[in-house]
Amino acid sequence: MIENTNRPSLTGLAETISTLTNSIASHLKESNHETPDFTTSSAEIPSNSEYEKLRIGLNSVALDLLRLVNGPKVGLRDFFTHHYEMAAWQVALEFDYFNHVPLEGSITLKELAQKAGMDEGRTLQVMRFLATQRVFKELAGETDEEHPFEHTATSAMIAREPLLKDVFLMQADEMFRAASSTSDSIRASPFKITFEGSPFALRHGQTAYKWYEEHPAYAARFSRAMAGVTQLHARQPSSTEFDWESLPAGTIVDVAGGSGYISLDLAKKFPQFDFIIQDISPIMLGQGKKLWTGDLESRVRFMEYNYFEAQPIKDATAFFTRQITHNLTDEDTVRFFRSFIPGLEACKPGTPMLINDSVLPEPGEGTAYEEHGLRQVDLAMWIGYNSRQRTAREFERLLAQADSRLKLVKVHSKGSMGLLEVQLSAAASQE
Ligand SMILES: C[S@@+](CC[C@H](N)C(=O)[O-])C[C@H]1O[C@@H](n2cnc3c(N)ncnc32)[C@H](O)[C@@H]1O
């Protein structure tokens, strides 16, 4: 049990760290899983709930121990250089260092700088900084100028999984720039929260969606980044946390599904379903057409649709929407939920509307480490869209505001990819 106290003892924390580390080592051994290391051939960490629980526990305690040992001055001095660190990452990703360094062997500084199309001095600054995070490793050179570098587990992962580069560069590029306008956006509108007034809109001169529409290369990267994010999660909750087999065969409508890559995963697992991918962006839908090929092509329809308008599909087996509400202000979330009503009214009673989005814990429900991770995304939603993440109770309130017949019938899971099941009840409640 991890105690949440303001006066933990250093040795108590160290003992918990030791116990949890031993449990992790036993878990790896019992499941025949190799112990991770920093080399390019390192095993990935296991993706199962037991390991996840131990990992989260260890992080909570180990971070607290370091906070106490470092003290606030050292801790904050370190923290307030993070934007410079992000700048180093921006360069490494933008200039493609991860793919220029070969997965086998090494590359000299000169070759790397040449391939990146920039000077050796700044390339070395970036590489040496990243090496302190165990991202790339500098080897002993034959001359003082050679500076050979090789991959580590982290840098090799980015080279091997191209979508991850898109995930990280989107953060280090347009979102990093947007984040620097946060206080300015409050000064511009201290009390009224609108999508148009987000830090992103202020920094880039347009709301995120308009900006992506006008910058197709960035829109394509955004779409790939959304697909890449799923590779960072140990679980694929949309397919495992809801009993899809319980639904009758038919059509799943993925509202604002982007390229429809989540539905694609479902389509491969559940041949009884066809899919309609709705999205306002022809670019996102266009990306999807490249993904749904072969046998899958006949099971999908791509539809341009604005989710503030009445849902046109009247014979769905289920409506599904993922990573949308956390992009919307409260007011727009209510409008979004209301748009489902004509669809739900026309479909068979009990047709589920599945909201696959972050569902925050109630205060004190999880560890500070877990909540920190969720709150990081909460801030990202603010910066990008002037939006926020919500608890199940907050979702319930907005559903009721949209239509008193919209009932949250089950919280299938909470956390970064929570899953809420909503149905339209037969009559408005008398409460
Ligand atoms: C964060 S992405 C989520 C995409 C996908 N559901 C996922 O989980 O990755 C938001 C999507 O909403 C789409 N979108 C934005 N405004 C919309 C609107 N008014 N109507 C329909 N789709 C919209 C965007 O084009 C984008 O594909």
Automatic annotation (TrEMBL):
Q: Which UniProt keywords apply?
A: Methyltransferase, S-adenosyl-L-methionine, Transferase
> Which Gene Ontology molecular-function terms are recorded?
O-methyltransferase activity
| InterPro entries assigned to the protein according to its UniProt record, in alphabetical order | COMT-like, COMT_C, SAM-dependent_MTases_sf, WH-like_DNA-bd_sf, WH_DNA-bd_sf
Q: Which GO terms describe its biological process?
A: methylation
Show where the O-methyltransferase C-terminal domain sits: 199-402
Q: Which residues form a coiled coil?
A: none
Q: Give the protein's recorded name.
A: S-adenosyl-L-methionine-dependent methyltransferase
Q: List the source organism.
A: Lophiostoma macrostomum CBS 122681
Provide the taxonomic classification.
Answer: Eukaryota, Fungi, Dikarya, Ascomycota, Pezizomycotina
